[in-house]
Amino acid sequence: MHMAQAEATIQPPRRKLIIEERSGLFDIDWSELWEYRELLYTLVEREVKVRYKQTAMGVSWVLLQPLLTMLIFTAVFGRMAKMPSDGIWYPVFVLTALLPWTYFAQALTRSGSSLVSNANLVKKVYFPRIFIPLSAIITPLIDFVLSLVLLFGLLLYAGIPLSWKVLTLPLFMLVSMLTATGVGLILTTANVKYRDVGHAVPFVIQIWMFLSPIVYPVSLVPERWQVLYGLNPMVGVLEGFRWALLGKAAPDPLVMGASFIVLMGVLVGGFAYFRKMERDFADVI
């Protein structure tokens, strides 16, 4: 039903279609992307409607999910395991990193299966295929923005004042989005040909979560491993959030540098892989 509605809703712009071979993996028709921009808006709108349609609690799930996760992490890691939190109240310490991580995990989950779940559109309608995973990466931003109400409320309750550093949060979210875009393009492209990739994504996300400083501080990682640990781009994002909101020390420049190098490699590699396989999507999917 949703696919039929989507096909009826998505009306590609009227343009003269010329099929020609591209000269390289990064030969992009920017005018085409701009002309189809309204299609991206439509795909995002459809994702939002499908997510909240026929739900009893609606957007309340956006607040309930991180709240329950925070309470569980606080009970298990904060109370039982006595995990340190650099002198910060543990619920705030966890939630500050949990919200950007939740966005990242949702973006990967949705984008990783986006092409396969939209197979009918890929086969029947011409449009820039990259809009499908991009819409899956943009949509969770709505949940993230709404969940900030919970975070700011908890900060107010804990008596932690905000400073000018809060203005840097969009920069760290951009890093998270770009990381999700690069990894998501790799996953969704591989999933078209190898469907078991879709089954591996939740496992990868779970392992990745424990390799990120959500329930524990970076200070627990030995200093000699800090740069290696920083190869995880989400380390810089989560530590950046804690720096901006909780007054922690700024992330180590070496760690941030390592994260940036990996981020650019993943982003370029993901885009190149997607472009290389894009012409075969309709045949393989």
Account of the protein in words:
The protein has 285 residues and is mostly helical. The chain contains 15 helices and no strands. The protein has helices spanning 2-9, 30-35, 37-52, 60-80, 90-112, 114-117, 119-124, 131-138, 140-158, 169-193, 196-210, 226-229, 233-246, 253-278, 281-284. The longest helix is centred in the C-terminal third of the chain and has 26 residues, at 253-278. 34% of the residues are buried.
Share in helix: 55-70%
What general outline do the C-alpha atoms trace? Answer: globular
Give the number of helices. Answer: 15
Q: Give the rounded overall mean pLDDT.
A: 85
Distance N to C terminus: 20 Å
Order of helices and strands: HHHHHHHHHHHHHHH
Largest sheet: none
Radius of gyration: 20 Å
Low-confidence stretches: none
Strand content: under 5%
Q: What class would the helix/strand composition place it in?
A: mainly alpha
Quick one: how many beta strands?
Answer: 0
